[in-house]
Design a protein that fits this description.
The protein has helices at residues 28-36, 52-56, 89-105, 114-122, 149-154, 217-231; strands at residues 5-9, 11-13, 23-25, 40-44, 61-64, 109-112, 126-128, 135-144, 158-165, 168-172, 176-182, 187-192, 202-205, 244-245. With 249 residues, it is of the alpha/beta class. It has a nine-stranded mixed sheet with strand order 4-1-5-6-13-12-11-8-9, sandwiched between helices. The protein has a three-stranded antiparallel sheet with strand order 7-10-14, with helices on one face. A two-stranded antiparallel ribbon has the order 2-3. The protein starts with a strand and ends with a strand. InterPro entries: Class_I_gatase-like (IPR029062), Peptidase_C26 (IPR011697), PuuD-like (IPR044668). It comes from Actinomadura vinacea. This is Gamma-glutamyl-gamma-aminobutyrate hydrolase family protein.
Length: 249
């Protein structure tokens, strides 16, 4: 059997050690996690957001990875916090278009860190431009809601999350539900409010499961779940609505 094709938007990089010029890159840990899960990673050139539907037509799933900050204008942010970094309008436009198409079409979607934030914004949610206490270079426990898709993937209880982010969800997007939190209330997991419905397969985590996926079966299971969903026939897509502010602080 052929491996399901998993689209992974590339990230712009000013330099890469093996190349002489600016590069487009994908984290090796992400690519390897998809491969171990049985998928075929397909690193996409982040251009022509108007044609993402046509370009993704050949793909079976999408992995929206971490990266720099999304420009706050996309979620009605007031000004730009001095802590913002690696903001790129071309990258933003492409990621937003990919997320919107995957959600609307029911294409299985795993969103990691920035990817989760992109999905939340596409659904009309907002972000906190800079957290009071950053979650950078930090491994901490995450409590997972029982009965959720995420709990089914990771197992009951919780997990240790490898985090690198200074932003988080402020207002939750419509049709989404919080499935995991850190001890300080930070949203660490999101999925469809009706994850068992017909809206398609979507899982979002604020942490980086690829950091430890090679040695931690629970973290690898996140990527394997995406590949499994991408291998299944896709059903009709339902419209989800609603929205709520996220508390916990």
């Amino acid at each position: 059997m052929s491996r399901p094709l998993i689209a992974l938007p590339a990230r712009f990089s000013a330099r890469a050690s093996a190349l002489r010029y600016a590069a487009e890159v994908a984290a090796r840990a992400l690519v390897e996690a998809v491969w171990r899960g049985g998928g075929e990673p397909f690193v996409m050139h982040p251009a022509d957001p108007a044609d993402v539907a046509g370009r993704l037509a050949r793909c079976d799933g999408v992995l929206l990875p971490g990266g720099g900050d999304l420009h706050p204008r996309h979620y009605g942010g007031s000004g730009e916090h001095e802590a913002l970094y690696d903001v790129d309008e071309e990258q933003d436009a492409f990621d937003l278009a990919v997320a919107a198409h995957a959600l609307e079409s029911g294409l299985p979607l795993l969103a990691v860190c920035r990817g989760l934030q992109i999905v939340n914004v596409v659904r009309g949610g907002t972000l906190r431009q800079h957290m009071d206490a950053e979650h950078r270079h930090l491994v901490h426990p995450v409590a997972v809601e029982s009965g959720t898709l995420l709990a089914g993937v990771l197992g009951s209880g919780g997990t240790d999350a490898s985090c690198y982010h200074h932003q988080d969800i402020e207002v939750l997007g419509r049709g989404l539900a919080v499935t995991a939190r850190a001890a300080d209330g930070t949203v660490e997991g999101v999925e469809y409010a009706d994850a068992g419905g017909e809206a398609g397969w979507f899982l979002g985590v604020q942490w980086h499961p690829e950091d430890t996926a090679a040695t931690d079966p629970a973290q690898q299971a996140v990527f394997t779940a995406l590949v499994t969903a991408a291998s299944a026939p896709q059903g009709p897509v339902a419209v989800v609505a609603g929205g709520e502010p996220v508390g916990g602080r």
